[in-house]
Amino acid sequence: xxxxxxxxCGDCTLCCKVMAIETxxxxxxxxxxxxKPGRGCAIYDTRPAECETFACLWLVxxxxxxxxxxxxxxxxxxxxxDGIEIRCDAGSPNAWRKEPYxxxxxxxxxxxxxxxxxxxxxxxxxxxxxxxxxxFDLGIVxxxxxIVRELExxxxxxxxxxxxxxxxxxxxxxxxxxxxRRS
Length: 183
Ligand code: SF4
Ligand code: SF4
Description:
Largest sheet: 5 strands, mixed
Bound molecules: iron/sulfur cluster
Structural class: alpha+beta
Mean pLDDT: 89
InterPro entries: UPF0153_domain
Strand order of the largest sheet: 3-4-5-6-7
Number of helices: 6
Radius of gyration: 17 Å
Order of helices and strands: HEEHHHEEHEEEEEHEE
Shape: globular
Number of strands: 11
Protein name: YkgJ family cysteine cluster protein
Oligomer: single chain
């Protein structure tokens, strides 16, 4: 965690739970051993670079109001090459279905479908691709797997998970789009 010019993490430490920290071999959805939940990092001055450089979207984007502060929403938002990732605190697995979050997430999905961007909710190990009309529960997507969207025009009509090795390097396979795997 870090701080932006305007906002501060304050009492929020949720990224220290929901994010995987490779340097520490810390899996996603479990508290970091160095975290004092609600208070901060016990090794702040020597924390890994990936912690030092991390900033969730709420911290850096004033368009997300105070209701989106992760300690309040139970949601940590980040961007990826493909769109928006919404990591939900596994202790509140339905937080993303509450308002105002659900409506906003749906609106992002509508914009995303028009602009070839994805909106993915991640709850514990589960990934759910959100589209204007569907929720594609993809289950656990491994590091060697990719989300494959089936498109009709810009409309997402299907989604599945396939081994990266079966797909080759192309980002587009006969009407399908691949979504990069995140940790
Ligand atoms: S989730 Fe965001 S606001 Fe909360 S501690 Fe991490 S970077 Fe700070
Ligand atoms: S090392 Fe500190 S900043 Fe990094 S995840 Fe652990 S508690 Fe959070």
